[in-house]
Amino acid sequence: MTAAPDVQTQARRLAGYADASRLRQEHDRDWVLDRIPGAPATLFDLGSGIGQLLDTALDRFPSLTRAVGLERSPHRIAEAEERLARHGARVELRPTDLTRPAPLPYRADVVTMTSVLHWLYPVEERILSWVAEHLAPRGRFLLTTYHPDRDEHGFGGEDDIVRAALGELGLRPGTVPGLFRAGGVVPIGTRTRTTDDLGHLLARHFTVAAVDERDAVVTADSAERYTHFHAATFGDYYGRLVEPARRPDFYRAVGEVAARRQEQRGHISSMPVRLWQLAPAD
Ligand SMILES: C[S@@+](CC[C@H](N)C(=O)[O-])C[C@H]1O[C@@H](n2cnc3c(N)ncnc32)[C@H](O)[C@@H]1O
Asked: The Methyltransferase type domain covers which part of the protein (predicted)?
């Protein structure tokens, strides 16, 4: 049996996502796929990760002859290739930086993007106009976005857990926003934008056909489980704020803060997640 990688290696490779995504992102999958109308032939999944949405979509929609995944992380693409091999020529995985997407020679009946848009801040317009250009005339763009409450520093969601974890390492909470700025880490609470901001941005490129919202509630049965979730989801985005020798302590502290919240609140985090159903602009 291969030993599990240590948490720093895991974070660097964004590894362990199949297991970690059960805590949050997995719940978006059928929610999104249930809203695909008719029998699509072509689907693009943007930020396709380890290929789970494409895998389920290919099983659910035999009409799909071209399912294209666009993803930046080579580790994730390699895992997706393995997962999707059984679908043969119906699948195409394209290494892509979604902040600089290249044109494709065909259009999609459906474009999906789940739990990705905040990583493209502040240049989301680039991918939005790309999608608008690549959507078939009666196509649908299904997008999920998370909206944690944010404070006066633009911190929200995972930023709060990280701030508390840095406190465990001896940093005063008031110094953390400055540390983020100095390290070039934009708080996730800022990246996610408000639903109003995002609504305006989307309306420049699409007609908003419908919006659904639910609460994404994260629970975990141990500190280790949450550390694993954090490393698989956020990679070393926050970890790099800490000098390498202290990173194992940092990841451990993230798990401990989460476990305490779990005990006190019955969950670790809870935030609205939106599913936007977008059609080409009139
Ligand atoms: C939270 S995961 C979501 C994965 C999958 N869509 C899901 O819902 O489970 C975010 C994904 O976006 C990818 N990503 C982030 N920034 C990206 C970029 N600039 N270009 C392409 N992919 C990116 C990450 O590598 C990761 O696989």
From this structure: 45-141
Determine whether the shortest distance from the Cβ of 145 to ligand 1 is under 6 A.
no
pLDDT digits (tens, 9 = 90+) for 180-197: 999 999 999 999 999 999
Dist. CA 170 → ligand 1 center (Å): 32
Ligand 1 atom at minimal distance to the Cα of residue 49: 27
Does 187 sit in the ligand 1 pocket, CB within 6 Å? no
pLDDT of residue 185: 98
List the residue whose alpha carbon is closest to atom 7 of ligand 1: 114
CATH of domain 7-280: 3.40.50.150
Span 126-143, average pLDDT: 98
Q: What pLDDT sits at residue 11?
A: 73
pLDDT tens-digit profile of 145-172?
Answer: 999 999 999 999 999 999 999 999 999 9
For the Cβ of 220 lying below 6 angstroms from any atom of ligand 1, the answer is no
